Amino acid sequence: MVTSDNEYPAVKNIVILGSTGSIGRNTLDVVRQFPNRFKVIGLAAGENLSLLLKQIQEFNPSVVCVKSFHEASKLRDMLADFPDDRHPEILWSDNGYCDIASLPEAHIVVSAIVGAAGLLPTMYAIRAGKDIALANKETLVIAGSLVTSEVDRTGVRLLPVDSEHNAIFQAMEGHKRLHVRRVLLTASGGPFLHFSREELEHVTPQQALKHPKWSMGKKITVDSATLMNKGLELIEAHWLFRLPPDRIDIHIHPESIVHSMVEYIDGSVLAHLAVPDMRIPIAYALSYPDRLPIQIPRLNLFEVGKLTFLPPDETRFPCLGLAKDVCRQKGTLPAVLNAANEVAVEAFLEGRISFYGIPKLIEHVMNEHLKLHGNIEPTSLDAILQVDAWARNEARSYVARKF
């Protein structure tokens, strides 16, 4: 969704929220290739101070932000030998993330903090009039109506970074929305595509983290294994492209070459094809409306040989069905689903619940929420954050009681 016609400057000042994660590192690689197009003025990370230190040394940002005062103190000590003119201002905590996201001199903010933690700084950036390269799908999952309303009010650009949504964005460029019949989100199927339900009962976190195509963080990799990631992307696509859920279909595509498709009312289907490399959608979001000659492997369809498409199996992967139901119902349920899923994934990675314990936990929290609170349309970020906190507490209590 792009709502602004403002022209970008010759050099764009960039703030990266989540600089030490997979998206952040790939973003910096794009910047590294085009130092005359982009300048990094802000880096926000969590606890990976050793990598953040290297990023500070290379890109010389004016401001950085870390998770807590403790990390800020450690980073200040680590920077002791840096020249005074290369010492960035150090911020910390939620307030720091929001401050760095709304730096006055920033032109575009890359929102790549994992999970619901990315919501507040992304909203602050939008309110400050910053264009957003959105890699944090949870921002739209849990607060889609509020975020899109704020985007409409401020007129900023909301540029998708997820490869699937970036593909749809490109396939819809130059076409009228009223001519779109449906969008087709593709999914690799994850590491367990051909596992039986019985085999899935016993998979381990180590198996779940071995994605066949993409190199990603732990949380999103597990989400890919459960197909929850595709459910969250369906909700994200609903808000990004203003399409009802019944006009968004999911196709399993193990080769991960077709990143998504758009079908038009005349029967035409436009597909975006590329090698599975996140630098492609990142570069397009950063340079939009231009394209950059980035140095990446090129697609060779003779080597690919074939492109396979399969329907998703919601019996073996019930998380996808839960997300579809939530997308149709809206209200506070998306925030509940997302919060419960984050707790469930964490518990799975710690070996406290099984693979199928993930959808079981999510469904329990959603049912409890409906029973105790109902499903109403949230009217503020505070209301959403309260729902998020309740759902996390309920999910953690359930894990402690049942597992």
| Proportion in β-strands | 5-15%
The largest β sheet comes out as: 7 strands, parallel
The share of residues in helices is 40-55%
Kindly report how far apart the N and C termini lie. 42 Å
Output the helix-strand order: EHEHEHEHEHEHEHEHHHHEEEHHHHHH
The helix-and-strand class reads alpha/beta
Sequence of strands across the biggest β-sheet: 4-3-2-1-5-6-7
Taking all Cα atoms into account, the compactness measure Rg is 21 Å
Q: Based on CA inertia axes, which overall geometry fits?
A: globular
Number of strands: 11
Mean pLDDT, nearest integer? 94
Low-confidence stretches: none
- So how many helices? 17
Can you describe what's shown?
The protein has 403 residues and is of the alpha/beta class. The chain has 17 helices and 11 strands. It has helices at residues 22-33, 49-59, 69-78, 93-101, 119-127, 138-154, 163-172, 197-200, 205-208, 218-226, 228-240, 279-287, 301-304, 318-329, 333-349, 357-372, 381-402, and strands at 12-17, 38-44, 63-66, 89-92, 108-111, 131-134, 158-160, 180-187, 248-252, 258-264, 269-273. It has a 7-stranded parallel β-sheet with strand order 4-3-2-1-5-6-7, with helices on both faces. Strands 9-8-10-11 form a 4-stranded mixed β-sheet, with helices on one face. Helix 4 runs parallel beside helix 5 and helix 15 (333-349) runs parallel beside helix 17 (381-402).
In short:
The chain has helices at 22-33, 49-59, 69-78, 93-101, 119-127, 138-154, 163-172, 197-200, 205-208, 218-226, 228-240, 279-287, 301-304, 318-329, 333-349, 357-372, 381-402, and strands at residues 12-17, 38-44, 63-66, 89-92, 108-111, 131-134, 158-160, 180-187, 248-252, 258-264, 269-273.
